[in-house]
Amino acid sequence: MSEQKQFNSDLCEFLASATTPFHAVAEMAHQLETSGYRKLAEDSHWQLQAGGRYYVTRNDSAIVAFGIGTESGPDGGLRMVGAHTDSPCLMVKPSPEKNVNGYYQLGVEVYGGALLNPWFDRDLSLAGRVSYQCEAGELRTGLVDFRRPIAVIPSLAIHLDREANKSRSINPQQDIPPILCQLEGDETTSFRELLQDRLLHEHPDCAVEKVLDYELCFYDTQKAAIIGLHHEFIASARLDNLLSCFTGMRALQQWDGASSVLLVCNDHEEVGSLSTSGAQGPLLASVLKRIVADEAAYAALTERSLMISADNAHGIHPNYPDRHDENHGPILNKGPVIKINANQRYASNSETTGLYRMLAAKEGVPVQSFVVRTDMACGSTIGPITAGGIGVRTLDIGVPTFGMHSIRELAGTSDACNLARVLQRFYNYRGSLVAN
Fold first, then answer.
1. Helix/strand/coil (H, E, C) string of the chain?
2. CA–CA separation, 151 vs 122, rounded Å?
3. How far is CA 252 from CA 37, 47, 105, 327, 372, in A?
4. Which residues belong to CATH 3.40.630.10 in the chain?
5. What is the CATH number of domain 3-87+237-427?
6. Using an 8 Å Cβ cutoff, are 290 and 47 in contact?
């Protein structure tokens, strides 16, 4: 199997496992451990050694993995890559049970800027984290994933809405509660009891006495697939931004041990990043301060480091070419995309983009640029948040995609593999990260 085919096959397997940010972090931790990375506890004293490979998690939904270089320690600067584990989705409310005409439904809240229309008529499952009281009277948490279709949000038939193809809008309170099953008469079903059964099914030894609370989201059970007449595309849920998480992780697994490196995958990017595990929270700064000795060393570290913020870019849609600037419409399979915005919605500058172009040229990887139309609003990433929060020079880059924030997105089969190659070269780059 070629390098690209193997990469995409592994990416598809990762996407199937990483159904929530919690499951993504658990899978990343597992894969990093197979490459020699050792888990650190945030509430313990760290004893870091040259050549050591480490990782730390927070909230079970964010992860920071790093390596201390044998030739260039942290004082020489860190080669950093950032991404995020969360994706727009439908999250179950705290008191979700509904019985409407004998149909058992769950109330949901829209997380992030989800494109809602594609959620209809999909085979949905449910996954996330559950907090419970065990038989010893202590608080525990566990991950659950039903792993099979258990719900659906049926469309209203066109016969009952003749203008559906012209003007149908979606009321997120009324129109999207998924149906799970049918009930008889006044029958009720406790959602927490369902979760307790699921916990016991997945974790037979958990000794759950009572489910206390949960963070659960629905997801599409259709697995990632390589599609296109010539296998040009990968179609999947959560490409934004698990594709970047996987790409950064795969590059980190190929680290040669010489220079100091770091990968951070934050949660809550889709809702502003302000949380304990988000990029606007203290996670990355707290890890960096523990890597070095004092405030002066921390200041030197950030000045000598560079962050590549990897988050998907908007490929130019052939049906809507007018939505792009005519000179900045990225094409799928034509290379990763440098994202630039004069108003600092992206953190790229000429120094950071220059380094990336130099590394990409050495790998023979093509590079594209994206600038939003001047008359349209520009999105943002963890790049400016990280740059503004810790003062590190940053590049925003991403793989071009279609259908961003849909339940099923589309990317090119060569772009993620090419990005991983450049990130691997970045991690193993022995030169200075600061222009002379």
1. CCHHHHHHHHHHHHHHHCCCHHHHHHHHHHHHHHCCCEECCCCCCCCCCCCCEEEEEECCCEEEEEECCCCECHHHCCEEEEEECCCCEEEEEEEEEEEECCEEEEEEEEECCCCCHHHCCCCEEEEEEEEEEECCCCEEEEEEECCCCCEECCCCCHHHCCCHHHHCCCCCCCCCCCEEEECCCCCCCCHHHHHHHHHHHHCCCCCEEEEEEEEEEEEECCCCEEECCCCCEEEECCHHHHHHHHHHHHHHHCCCCCECEEEEEECCHHHCCCCCCCCCCCHHHHHHHHHCCCHHHHHHHHHHCEEEEECCEECCCCCCHHHCCCCCCCCCCCCCEEECCCCCCCCCCHHHHHHHHHHHHHHCCCCEEECCCCCCCCCCCHHHHHHHHHCCEEEEEECEEECCCCCCEEEECCHHHHHHHHHHHHHCCCCCCCCC
2. 8
3. 10, 21, 43, 33, 31
4. 3-87+237-427
5. 3.40.630.10
6. no
Question: What is the location of CATH 2.30.250.10 in the chain?
Answer: 89-220
The overall average pLDDT reported for the chain is: 95
pLDDT digit string, tens, across residues 223-280 = 999 999 999 999 999 999 999 999 999 999 999 999 999 999 999 999 999 999 999 9
CA gap 410, 155 in Å, rounded: 23
Question: Along the chain (436 residues), what's the average pLDDT of each consecutive run of 10 residues?
Answer: 92 98 98 97 94 97 97 91 98 95 96 96 98 95 97 96 88 96 86 94 94 98 97 98 98 96 97 95 96 90 96 95 89 96 92 96 96 89 94 96 97 97 96 82
pLDDT in tens, 87-118: 999 999 999 999 999 999 999 999 999 999 99
- Using one digit for the tens of pLDDT, what is the confidence trace for 295-323? 999 999 999 999 999 999 999 999 999 99
CATH of 89-220, one of 2.30.38.10, 2.30.250.10, 3.30.420.40, 2.40.70.10: 2.30.250.10
Q: Are strands 400-402 and 409-412 parallel, antiparallel or unpaired?
A: antiparallel
* pLDDT number for residue 1: 65
Q: What contacts 194, CB < 8 A, 6 or more positions away?
A: none
